[in-house]
Design brief:
The complex is a heterodimer.
Chain A (H helix, E strand, L loop, with lengths): L1 E6 L8 H13 L6 H13 L3 E4 L6 H11 L4 E5 L6 H5 E8 L2 E8 L6 E5 L6 H13 L1 E4 L2 E4 L5 E6 L12 H4 L4 E4 L5 H13 L7 E4 L1 H13 L4 H16 L4 E3 L3 H17 L7 H12 L4 E2 L1 H5 L4 H7 L3
Chain B lengths: L1 H40 L5 H22 L2 H7 L2 H11 L6 H15 L9 H17 L13 H10 L7 H10 L10 H6 L51 H15 L1
Helix pairs in contact in B: 1-2, 1-5, 1-6, 3-4, 4-5
Classes of the chains: A alpha/beta, B mainly alpha.
Amino acid sequence: MTNATYEGPLRNLDRLKETFENVFVEVEKVIVGQRQVVEEMLIGVLCGGNVLLESLPGLGKTSTISTLAKVLDLKFGRIQCTPDLMPSDITGTYIIEEEDGKKKFKFQKGPLFSNIILADEINRATPKTQSALLEAMQEHQVTVGNNTFPLEEPFFILATQNPVDQEGTYPLPEAQTDRFLLKVLVDYPKFEEEMDIVDRYASHTREPNVKVLLGKQSLLLLKNLVRQMPISNDNKKHAVEIVAKTRKFKDFIEVGASPRASIGLIMAAKAKALIDGRKFVSKEDIEKMAFPILRHRIILNFAAERDGKKPDDVIKMLFK
Amino acid sequence: MNEARQIFLELKLELLKLVLIQGILNGALLFLGLYALLVWILTLPLTTYLLLIAGGYVIVYCIRELRKIDYATIEEKEPTLRDILRTVYDNKDNKNLIIKALVEELAIRMQEVRPANFFNHSRAFFKMFLVIIIAVSLPFISSYKVQFAQWEDAIRDFTNLIPGFDDPVQVELEEVVFSPEDDIYGDPSVALLGDEEVTVALATSMSNIDFTSPTEANSRKFTDQEAADEVYATTDASYEESIAKNKQKMVREYFKNIQS
C-alpha cells in the first residue's frame, strides 16, 4: 500500500458520493469493468454482511477483492477451500511454544483473523469447515476449544462458488446460504473490456498501484451512517411487500424468503443510497437491490424450471 | 420540517398570483361568451348580471384552486421531491445527522420549485386567443341580432296563448269595459231596433239647413290637409231586399228591358 491519502472522519455528507466514486476509480485501475460487482461488495461491507459470489474461473474474483481491501486499508486473507481443509486451518489452533524454558500453549491465529476474507470455492470444503466459517460470519468470533476469540471489525467474508464442476462438492444448504446478505453474479466482460484486459496484463508486468482512500475508522463511521439513513414508510412497506410476495407467489416459488431478507433488503437499499450520494432511500434502490438479496433465498419450483425461468426473472415479476 | 412548511407557504403565495391570472382569464372568457350570446345576439339586458356571474366565478375558482395546492400537488409536479418529502415527514422525530442534512436539502429544493411548472402556458395562451377572437368578432355578428328587446311583450303574447293564464293587466281592462251581466253582443234592445221600421223626422226648425229649396253645391278645392287620412266605407249590416216572389222576375229583367 502506498500513498496513504485516506480521509479522516467524514464531516460533509455531500462529499460521500465523490469519495465512493474515487473508490471505484481506484479499483478500476486494476479490474476492468465489474463495477456492479465492486459496488455490491462495498454494499456488503457497509451493511456488515457477507457476500456469496457465483462466478466461473478466471474472472478476477481474487484480484477484485484484494484490490478493494487495499483501497479500504483492510487486512486481506485468502482461504482456498478443499475437501481436506480442516476447521483449525482457518480458525487457528494452539501450538506449543517454549518461553523462558517453559512450554506453553499459544493460540496461533488463522486466516480468519483478517478484515476481508476470500473463501474460494466454499462448496468444496466439508460441512464441518463450512460451519466454522459460518460461525465467524454470523457471530464475528471464533471458538477454539473452550475459548472464544472476537474478530476485528470491520469483518467481511466473500465466499465464492463455481456454478459448474459440481462433482465432489458440498453445496451449501439453503439455511446457510440465507446467512449471506447478497449473492453476486459475475459475468464475462464485454469485448471492449476484454481487449482492455489483454492490453493491460499481456503487455505490462507491474500491477498498477492503488491509493488508500478509506480507513477502518471511516468505514465504521460509514456503517453507522448506513443504519441512520432515513427511509419513508412507503418504501419500507414496498420492501416488505416484495419479500412477503415470495412466500405467496406459488406459481413459480416453492419456498420464499424469510424476514431476514426484509432486513437485508432495507439495509442494502440504504447502503446503495449512501453510495449514490443521496440522503434518502428511493423505490429504485429497493428494486435494484432485490435481485442480489433474494436470488439465493428463494427456491423455484418445477414450473419455473420447466419454463426456463431463473430467480432474477421471477423476482422481476414480484414488482408488478 | 418547519422550514419546509414555511417554504411551502411562500410557494403557495407565489402560486396565488398564477391562480388569479387563470381565474381572471376564465372569467373574461365566460363573460364574453355569455355577453356575445345573450346581450349582443339575443339583445337581452343582462350585462350587469353577467358581470356579477363572472366575478363570482373568479372568486370561487381561485378559492378552489388554492385549496387544491398541497404537498401532493408538489409531488405530482416535481416527482424528484416525492421521496424526500415523504422521508422527511416519516422521520421527523429522528434527529440524526442525515435527517438534518436532508431537511436542509429539502428546503433548498423547495426554493427551486418554479411556480411556472404549475401553470399550463399553452392553455392560457389559447384562452387569451379566444378572448381576443370573441371581442373582435362582436361588431361583425351584429347582423345576427335577434330583436328580443321587447321581450316583455313577447313573453306576454306567449303567456296569453296559455289557457287559463290570467294577465292581471288584461283582467283589469276587461272588468272596466265589460261587466259580468252584459251580453257580448251589446244591449238586446239595439238588436231588436234593426228589425223595426223607423220613421226619421228632421226637426227643421232646429237646423239652419233649408230642405225645401235645395241649391247647387258650391265648388270647393280640396287640399291634402282637408282630405281624411283614410276614407273607407264599411257596411255595418247586411242589406237584403224583400221583394215578393211574383215580382222578382220583373225586377231581374227590368234593366234588360229598359236597355232594349
